Amino acid sequence: MKFRDDFVWGAATSSYQIEGGQNEGGKGAHLWDEYVKEENGKVFENQRGDVSCDHYHRYKEDVQLMKELGIKAYRFSIDWTRIIPEGIGAINEEGIAFYNSLIDELVANDIEPYLTLFHWELPMELYKRGGWMNPDMPEWFANYARVIAERFSDRVKNFFTINEPQCFVGLSFSEGVHAPWLQLPDSQTLLMSHNALKAHGRAVQELRAHARQPLNIGYAPTSGIALPATDKPEDIEAARQAYFGIPQEGTWAWNTAWWSDPVIFGKYPEEFLVHFEKDLPKITDDDMKIISEPIDIYGQNIYLGYPVRMGEDGKPELLSRNTGYAKSASNWPMTPDALYWGPKFLYDRYKKPIFITENGLACHDWVHLDGKIHDSSRIDFTARYLGALSRAAEEADIRGYFAWSLMDNFEWAEGFGQRYGLVYVDFQTQKRIPKDSAYWYREVIRTNGACI
Length: 452
Ligand code: BGC
Hints:
binds beta-D-glucopyranose; 3-stranded mixed β-sheet
């Protein structure tokens, strides 16, 4: 298996999922802080991220763990409400100090920080004012981005603006499976999406304008990958069309073109504009200019794909999966080719250097009698997915891979019921134990993939 010599090998986390320290250090409340309090049965066993991995107090230990595991890059996110508790207004110096220490610790240990500005911690005060529906949201986010640039860009070069708008708009406000569990009409979620994209663009502008050094700025969306059922050119074409087309299943938010074409091309896909005409927000040329502020790198979180072939009618046809297909502890199908076709389709269309900003597997991990965690399925999964990625790297510009996740954490609506970590966390004692996959990944990193 071959990757470029400067390939970035990393691991990823997000703030609410690992930090804990919920009422500490002057932090404000965000949507998840507030909505998980309700104990309404929407989160597995009514669990919350108030303490989670207690990373807020244990970050030094966690950085040492990364060092021991040979991890070269760490993708983490900042909780907006630690920096600006009410979303706008006063800056919380204690929050700045926390992330400064984390960044210093990473740099001192030769781990390159990749900072995500928004992995779903919408400040409650802004949500009360309409959140993503409020036309001021892009400016509020821009202000936050400026603070991030001013305070951290002397040491951090790599930034991702927003993580998975498909989820923080779609899952939260369309499907109602994430906080605040709403199912709003398309007209409202489409408005949110437009404001979220403008917020992304304004953040790129502010990061760049206030940067202390030249930056690599990217974006980190997601969605399942359409996989051609065979190698026939017509099936490949069908998969490409399905991947960039209007989703045939689930809500409108599960798609790629709506969220990425505007960022790269400065326009929404025509097919969508026609299809959603009656629900569209007002879209101006100035908006599109902001949204398409050039980015340097393109991140994509990729976990799975779905099979597609060209139908008799010349349109992509979604196929059912084979009986007994392999799946994870989160019931997601194992589809390694997603890491070939996804980056390939994205590169063919957008021509930007690609980072896989998340990929990983939920397993039924536990501490075995010998005190270790033998997660052979995670090793096999990652080996297969990386194999597909190395094939993609022969045809596309693939710059890096971030395993999701560095450690087991609060899995949103699934609470602590799903474990994605390379490192096992005992949530009673906060003891960390690297799983077998963590030591395997260390070898992958050391050999730049050659050991697979
Ligand atoms: C999210 C992560 C999440 C992971 C596994 C991604 O959609 O960015 O926060 O933990 O999937 O569900």
